[in-house]
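Researcher: Next entry: HD/PDEase domain-containing protein (Glomus cerebriforme).
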Amino acid sequence: MNQSRMRFQDPIHGLMEFEDWVVKVIDTEHFQRLRNIKQLGTTYYVYPGACHNRFEHSLGVAHLANSLVTRIYETHKQPELPKLEYNERDLKCVTLAALCHDLGHGPFSHLFEKEFIKKIRPERKWKHEDGSKMMVNHLFEVYGSKILGDLDTNDEKFIKDLIDGNRTNRSPYLFDVVANKRNSIDVDKFDYLARDCHYLGMKSEFDHSRLMKFSRVYENQITYYFKESYNIYDLFHTRYSLHKKAYNHRVGKAIDFMIRDALIEADPILKISESINDPNEYLKMDDTILNKIEFSNDEELKKSQDIIKRIRTRNLYKFVDEFLVPEDLKDKLTEQKINPVEIADKELKVDDIIVDRLVLNYGMKAENPVNHVKFYDKKKGDKVFTLEKSQVSYLVPEQFEELNIRIFSKDPDHKKIEHTRKRFQELLKKITNKDQKTYYTR
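Model: Predicted structure:
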């Protein structure tokens, strides 16, 4: 590609180079909007170093996607490997998919889809990937060939399929790059694990650059050198650890619920939830929505403003208690049995109680994602295989998903928190016929 390039200095990947057509996409209002959306949402309220945004993450993912696919093309020039023809059009599409994969994130990242939209528009089953596809469609409509060159409607569909992980017959291995639904290994994770650990001040043993170096394409999928199997387990363990320690921190989650409630109270006035239907309105949706509510003179926004003031003065919703659910109790402790109505009594309002069902896993629900990873051995030619846990380590997990039921109180009154905790513990005993050890019964 004989085009001019622009360089970005990045704290994670060093010098990242992008061709002129990529920079034109970066310079659109669609992409620039990501500067005002915190990568880790309310985690910033707990970890002040976590101030990075979706903007730089998306640049990193595009850099890694382009680098990985280019490396694969170069590697497969070796005569002993399956031949892969260099395809400039496919490379542009996967780079653009990586660049645009997070265009659909709303204010405070996952809070918008998982808390706000899910609560206020449950019938939509809307995900940020749906928003990303809407914004990609809008990019093609608004700019077309001005910045996207000769990419056509077929390419647009391919890009949206890559973002959604909707595998088709067009270069099937490319669906392992941006949003890998086959085994959950993709450059999106490569970037956010490294970037988030850096800004959170945490360490990660996972080495994405090494894994990329040992990537090959066999049987229309990206495979890895078998000696990288433990590195892959480190990937999934790092992801789990970040969710456990940072992404779902109790204080951050309490603030999640507060911002959700503030947005819900403001929605009838500002029509925030309707923005997911209109890309022009969605362009206005970023973290500054709180400022818009906070500094408005509209008296109808007072309830929202009161909640935001509580955040500003750290008068937060309070963590009450939690119960890490054993496997044999998951079928008993359902949403129908553990909910605010069952916990509330004459002293406790239903609306003041929040039940958070936190599910953490290795990226594929209760499955071990490594069971879906194909490996190669240089000595065995093009034969690919899977690895049992016993072939990697006897210390990898036996279980790959956990359920943690957490209770929060909107009312910070100490006596009510104590009473809510007691009611929760009594409810657990009533359902299971046994005293259960919660966080506060150690």
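Model: Note for the record: The first strand starts at residue 5 and ends at 10.
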